[in-house]
Amino acid sequence: MKKINVICLKWGSKYPTSDVNLLYSMVKKNLGVPFEFYCITEDAEGLLEGVKVLPLYDGSLTGWWHKLSIFRKDFYGLSGTALFLDLDIVITAKIDELLLFQPGRTCSIEDKGGSKWNVINSSVVRYEIGELDYVWQGFLYNQKWIMDNMHGDQDWLGLVVPSVEVYPAGWVVSYKKDCNSRGWKTLGNLGEWMMKKGYLKPLGEASLPENAKIVIFHGKPNPIDVVNKPYKIWKKAPWIQKYWG
Known about the structure:
Layout: E1 4-10, H1 17-30, E2 35-41, E3 51-54, E4 81-85, E5 89-91, H2 97-100, E6 107-110, E7 120-128, H3 133-141, H4 143-149, H5 153-160, E8 165-166, E9 172-174, H6 175-178, H7 188-197, E10 214-216, H8 223-226, H9 240-243
Parallel strand pairs: 1-2, 1-4, 2-3, 6-8, 9-10
Antiparallel strand pairs: 4-7, 5-10, 6-7
């Protein structure tokens, strides 16, 4: 297999530099094909030597809207297969199959957030650089309407790329939906309210599904929030530490 491009995005202060370095280390440990690792960011301070920096394409955009720029035809002169990964994920097994599945197609994962616009989640996307330029061009043409009416990048992506292949169930799982992570309502709605306020801690630990390759953390909590302790209604997941670094 030819060398592939692994791409992530760090914008602003939502995620620290250490999250980029952790992702890079997890990819090194779990990807058995040659790759280059790129981070799109305006702040490269503290990144590991193996992380190649790409400047933000449009400084006027914010947050996840920057993700749509990865579909530009002229993507920093790069070509070939790319695997985009969000920073708030934990890689728990070898991910080579993510590249071998349906070669040449755009592949992503099912969205479980209930958006009216789409059925995919852009935390993990494999695609061929330059082949989806219309995603970016369409965004530029309709930018104000899209940003005013859609929650984020994956709504637009899911709407205009109907041919996205969804990875097999169980390969990429949700911490909230698939890891038995929600604390029991021991006192009904009152108990959930107490957990949200921190007066009551959910018991037990979240579990890692047997065949999971990646665990995504959409919204809160982030992996750092539950690695050592519960977070509001969500159980702790100390197994995260095993896969970091």
